[in-house]
Amino acid sequence: MEPLIAAIDQGTSSTRFLVFNAKTAELISHHQVEINQSFPKEGWVEEDPKEIMQSVYECMERTCEKLCQLNIDISNIKAVGVTNQRETTLVWDKVTGEPLYNAIVWLDLRTQSTVERLINKAPGRNKNHLKHKTGLPISTYFSAVKLRWLLDNVDEVQQAVLSERAMFGTVDSWIIWCLTGGRNGGVHCTDVSNASRTMLFNIHTLEWDPELCRYFDVPMEILPKVRSSSEIYGWMVSSVFVYVSCLSQCLGDQSAALVGQMCFKEGQAKNTYGTGCFLLRNTGTKPVVSEHGLLTTVAYKLGKDEPACYALEGSVAIAGAVVRWLKDNMGIVQSSSEIEKLAAAAGTSYGCYFVPAFSGLYAPYWEPSARGIICGLTQFTNRNHLAFAALEAVCFQTREILDAMNQDSGVPLTQLQVDGGMTSNRLLMQLQADILCIPVVRPTMSETSALGAAMAAGAAEGVEVWNLSPDHLPHVSSEKYDPQINSDESEFRFARWKKAVQKAMNWETTEPCCNTNGMKPQGSTNLHLEIFTMFKSKKWWNE
User: Fold this and answer.
1) CA-to-CA distance for 15 and 17, rounded, in angstroms?
2) What CA–CA distance (Å, rounded) separates 203 from 255?
3) In what order do the strands lie in the sheet with 166-170?
4) What is the DSSP string of 164-221?
5) What is its main location (predicted)?
6) Which pTM was predicted?
7) End-to-end CA distance of the chain
8) Cα R_g (the chain), whole angstroms
9) pLDDT tens digits, residue range 339-380?
10) Which residue from 189, 133, 455, 187 is spatially nearest to 302, judged by alpha carbons?
């Protein structure tokens, strides 16, 4: 049997464990478990760290059972990699091994007032005040402000810091620490791609920055050690693997997808459609500063002695999450797959435009005060049109970040490589090609984040069963979607979308306001509450 490499893919909505053939890149077996999210208050999004780890263990166990059913010896798994939802923030007690609060998810908005305060005290009220070191604007999106909230508001976190028991990490750090022994000698580390999303990391020196830590008043002793994205971090302590496997890779999910799409050359790009939507373009070994609202991030560092590679990134908060909202909050669809049928039945949004700014707007605007809005409703509008408008919204948001990326690079993309769960929606892929006016190319094996994690794990020094040299990269089959509408129609629809975006701006502030009863509403601008009365009769949307 040829060597196998496994990958833990811990995303916002689910956890997967996947096993690949290191010679052919063939997916041998996998298992997936959904993750629950909680919304304690408007704008707050949390996940249970223990549930995250339980899902990891369950996926590992079920996948290994499937391998045994296939008569495949799990001792052929030579290494395990980790790829993860980025920015999601945890603090735990290194003595007890217990989380001190739920994980604050990357799209959580509770820190908006903190962000406004930081921007107000920055010279010229410039949200890019720290960008020269971090590559990032001051935003609710990144880990430093979430950690600051935990330090300010959770007594258990404060006490653990004072008693030198606290450990901070993003999801990758939590998983690696738990799998390598936890409180019994677990390895507390992260990689450069995840560290670069915290606002505490200098992307030029590739180290935690004392000045940034002082700015956010974060004690440096709680931070994980920063490692490369491809090296042996430690050995797994798990009953699942009778034959011990090493953990030899860590990459944020979008960086892993860049590797999985084999975008190793400067100028190559990919767009991932998951809970959010993330377009990354490889800029080589030198960071490029965006002038059009994109992020500068560390893409990967494939070995201790290898140079770091950087990327320009356009981040969209709500992509697949809009489908989940239509299903769970509004009951407009019964399953995520149903949205394609509804949208296809309409064939058009009939002038309806949906801006799903549930967590404000990310790139290229970085406007946390924006909120979701639906424009252009008439008595003719039904749920099919809303489904179509939701899919179009994902495509329009991608168009905005692609335009910004083309302006920054000066070299327009001639086609877009895509991946992620939403790419199984063929209508969405065709809409994307139509709105971008360039072909969209989707690999037939869409688990590219996990593939990228496996590739980097297998290539690590001491493992070396996966060759990443250009002439040894695996061939992955794909399908291509060409634009089917003329550019004038595409531009007209995009212009209407941009008009809708402006209507969504400056909707929410942290300043107190009163309703007609003199009460201060906490959620008066949440899209769910804004349009609930419109949708409360299911008869209306079924007509």
Assistant:
1) 7
2) 15
3) 46-47, 103-104, 89-93, 166-170
4) T-EEEEEHHHHHHHHHTTTTTT---EEEHHHHTTSSSEETTTTEE-HHHHHHHT--GG
5) cytoplasm
6) 0.85
7) 57
8) 23
9) 889 888 888 888 899 999 988 888 898 888 889 999 998 889
10) 455
